[in-house]
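Readers of this paper often ask what the protein records in our data store actually look like. The remainder of this section carries one protein's record, kept here as part of the documentation.

:::
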Amino acid sequence: MKAIVQDVYGSADVLELRDIARPGPRDGEVLIRVRAAGVDQGVWHLMAGLPYLIRLFGYGLKKPKVPVRGREVAGVVEAVGGGVTRFAPGDEVFGTCEGSFAEYACAEEDKAARKPGGLSFEEAAAAPISGVTALQAVRDAGQVTVGQKVLVLGAGGGVGSFAVQLAKAFGADVTGVCSTGKVELVRSLGADAVIDYTTTDIAGAGKLYDVILDTAGNRPLSLLRRLLVPKGTLVIIGGENGGKLTGGFQRSLGAPLASLFLGPEVQGACRQGNAPGSRGPGIADGRRQREARGGQGLSPCRSAGRHPVPP
């Protein structure tokens, strides 16, 4: 089969389209014929091996442990391994796996879900990591409830766009922060108010929030603390700032320590890619939550572009 492979860490120049052996599903896995694969920030980090901290997470110290890139997948089940009960050949699915930039990829059964009929394969492939990271931030770390005031930084991004919708699904009053070009997008996602950070200081509105979801990672924690109510919660989801050693992980890993000194609760919610049982099913739960409140479900993830792979 064709696959996009790398032997060493580096820029996109290290990626090669090659013929490699087709994988077979092990017990508890499904073999998926890939129709679309998502590209998120994690793909770049794993390609480059940066920050260096991720190499200690089992991805390979000197070279990639898994040579085929890609973590998000949508396609059709080709075969199932022993013990798989939720899927059968022919099922349309989406979820997360290792090595989705290929014609075929294997995913653990509990990291896949049936693709909603209203989503294209491309839309489904763009959703798992951003959608579930947002769900974990809103529901688990932030514990957003009805009537709370929620501020979403980076509301026009992959995680942020889902966070806006999910916070609304849980009944919150949502303010989204984004650039000028994304104001209408964020408003269309259901935000009650939108702040264009290029023209408006987020601290100048005089409004305090019960929960702040920070997907951008470029504002001082001391500033965000001042925007919280006394018992508010700041959820740090990621960010691309930081050095080569820890990168954006620094803010999330330091969140518990920050709580001791900053007063409000500071939660770390790193971008997710390997949480068992939470990929597609979590997104489906979020859709049902919003539909139960009379909405239309979550809007499909808006991709930044597409890149067909030559046969």
